[in-house]
Amino acid sequence: MTVVTIERKILEKNDAVAAENRARFARRGLFVFNMVSSPGSGKTTILERTIEALKDRVRIGVVEGDVQTDLDAQRVARYSVPVVQIVTNGGCHLEARLVQDALDRLDLDALDLVVIENVGNLVCPANYDLGEAMKVVVLSTTEGDDKPLKYPAMFRQASVLVINKIDLVPYVPCDVAALRRHALQINPDLTIFETSGTTGAGLPAWCDWLIARVRRAHA
Amino acid sequence: MTVVTIERKILEKNDAVAAENRARFARRGLFVFNMVSSPGSGKTTILERTIEALKDRVRIGVVEGDVQTDLDAQRVARYSVPVVQIVTNGGCHLEARLVQDALDRLDLDALDLVVIENVGNLVCPANYDLGEAMKVVVLSTTEGDDKPLKYPAMFRQASVLVINKIDLVPYVPCDVAALRRHALQINPDLTIFETSGTTGAGLPAWCDWLIARVRRAHA
């Protein structure tokens, strides 16, 4: 497919800007992760619960990426954390340059943690480094246990897998053990959490892990 | 974003090949639809149930699009229908040229209906005409009722919306009336079905509609 060469040039430019973003985070000891998933996996809900749990201990800023609307930014803003919305107008992923522009609107010196919530898309955002310390991929049990095999790039690029909607396991044909096995088959280094944004299950373990990462970036 | 101009050229080429595909379908009175959705919405399960219900009355061929693996083609092939798998190797959508190549491997004269199951992605496939009569977008209730507003391009391009996993409504925060309202706000011409691939609910209505479309294309 002819698109490959074009993509390569775009990616080279993107990687250069991502390196600038990464240097900017490192200078301040900021921990930054890039949250990726299909639409509707529960990224925003997990983010809301995380902010609720941590906001008195960690200074959190959010960059929201969406194809259209600022619905997610509005949801997050209710928790009184600084949030910048990027609307890609049909673009299927965030790019480092868009994040760079968004960072200009945040007071980075007043933050410990920046969460970038990417556009809901399990394919394209895998290829775009935004300067984050790591990608966190969220997969809900309702999506099925075969998804790591079918969309391997994202699971290969991610450091953390959050298996969300764990409360729905009794009602959906998802074998969580198989899901974990498929994910580790693609990427043996994945750290895996099982959570429910609805019931709150598993979120304390995820939050503890996150605090440890924020402290390490600060040190 | 610089990508816009590049995309336009790719899309022009794509549209020319899509027109060739469309003429090929029209000559044979074939009905062809392009099934699009996020990963894990239940596209393949609906397709399996549809083939099961219709295969004695309608001659069905399938083009399976996946980023990796032929898991879906294997699932569909169990129903003894001709199926061609396109693996995009990381590509986030099917293009008309890929479908054209796949069509060469199907005996189109021996078919009444071709289903193209696109890569699981609610964003990019919206822009790529494959020559189909219509796009059918599948959205599962677990993805949330705000998705038509957040991913409007796909709902604008589609003629049919299948709201799947209707059996999970008691367990998920999804207001189906709001989902329908949001979808019709984006595209008032949408035909909407509510289905469950698991329980089979709503599938007879969908199959009846499909048979009527196949007959009309034949006439």
Tell me what you see in this structure.
The structure is a homodimer of 219-residue chains. In chain A, helix 1 runs parallel beside helix 4 and helix 2 crosses helix 8. In chain A, helix 3 links the parallel strand 2 and strand 3. Chain A has 8 helices and 7 strands. In chain A, strands 3-2-4-1-5-6-7 form a 7-stranded parallel beta sheet, sandwiched between helices. Chain A is globular. By secondary structure, chain A is α/β, with parallel strands linked by helices. At the A-B interface, helix 1 and helix 5 of A face helix 1 and helix 5 of B.
Distance separating the two termini of chain A: 46 Å
Main structural class of chain A: alpha/beta
Q: Sheet with the most strands of chain A?
A: 7 strands, parallel
Give the strand tally of chain A.
Answer: 7
Net shape of chain A: globular
Strand order of the largest sheet of chain A: 3-2-4-1-5-6-7
Radius of gyration of chain A over alpha carbons?
A: 17 Å
Low confidence ranges of chain A: 1-7
* Order of H and E elements of chain A: HEHEHEHEEHHEHEH
**Averaged pLDDT of chain A, please?**
93
Number of helices of chain A: 8
